[in-house]
Amino acid sequence: INKNQLSIVVEVGKNFTATCHLLEGCAYTSDDIEWRLGNLSIAKQSYHRINETAVSVTINISSDMSDWLKCTAPKESLSYKPRSIYGILLRAGYPPLKPKNLSCIAVQEDKDISPNLNCSWDPGSLELGTVLTHKADCKQHLARFCIVNLETFPIHMVLKVWVEVKNALGSERSELQNDSSYFAKPNPPLNVQVQVKFPTSLVVTWKHPIDRTILKLSYAIRYRKAASDVWIEVRCVEHDIFK
């Protein structure tokens, strides 16, 4: 085998065509060229004679194919000549699947939102590599999650995050774009208290878990009767009186 042989990835289900060229002055002709896949000879019907010194072959790539595609030029009458063999190693594969269910979250730490953006996704079964990028690169083979440090969580800004899957046969990309508050997860409300003020009314109070200049929050109260399995939700703002 020639030392300069190559290895390439070819897509399953697609046709692959290779061409064998004989050097000028070679004692062989295109009639002497034989194509082999591994140790098996390829049927002549797959050949295409280009000229006196070149013959191509076209094969369909199957999922179990991983072998040398070799061009040989043997000739009994020229047995004193060294046998010419050139080839390329074929590795069957699939293009990457588009990542699905991309989600990212940054949790509250103490009085601020953490600069660490935790992202996860479903890469599918054929992914060969993943890169998640937003001010930082995170490269993990066959990854399903990545933590990107933003140094400081961006407040009141539009944040764009994407995950890109790449391999030798192509790339696919999914992305999220929203206000930064969409990605922030604050702590639960603090000091929640319920007081009876009237026979049919309750007063519910709580404390904002994070400074309002950092994150504006909305609230909801759920309640149900003791003997019921049905919950009723009431959207409200801080210090609403619940009736």
UniProtKB/TrEMBL annotation:
Q: Which CDD domains match?
A: FN3 (cd00063)
Entry's PROSITE patterns?
Answer: FN3 (PS50853)
Domain annotation Fibronectin type-III: ranges: 188-243
Q: One matching Pfam family, short form?
A: Lep_receptor_Ig
Which InterPro entries does the record cross-reference, listed alphabetically? FN3_dom, FN3_sf, Ig-like_dom_sf, Ig-like_fold, IgC2-like_lig-bd
Provide the alphabetized UniProt keywords.
Immunoglobulin domain
Q: What is this protein called?
A: Fibronectin type-III domain-containing protein
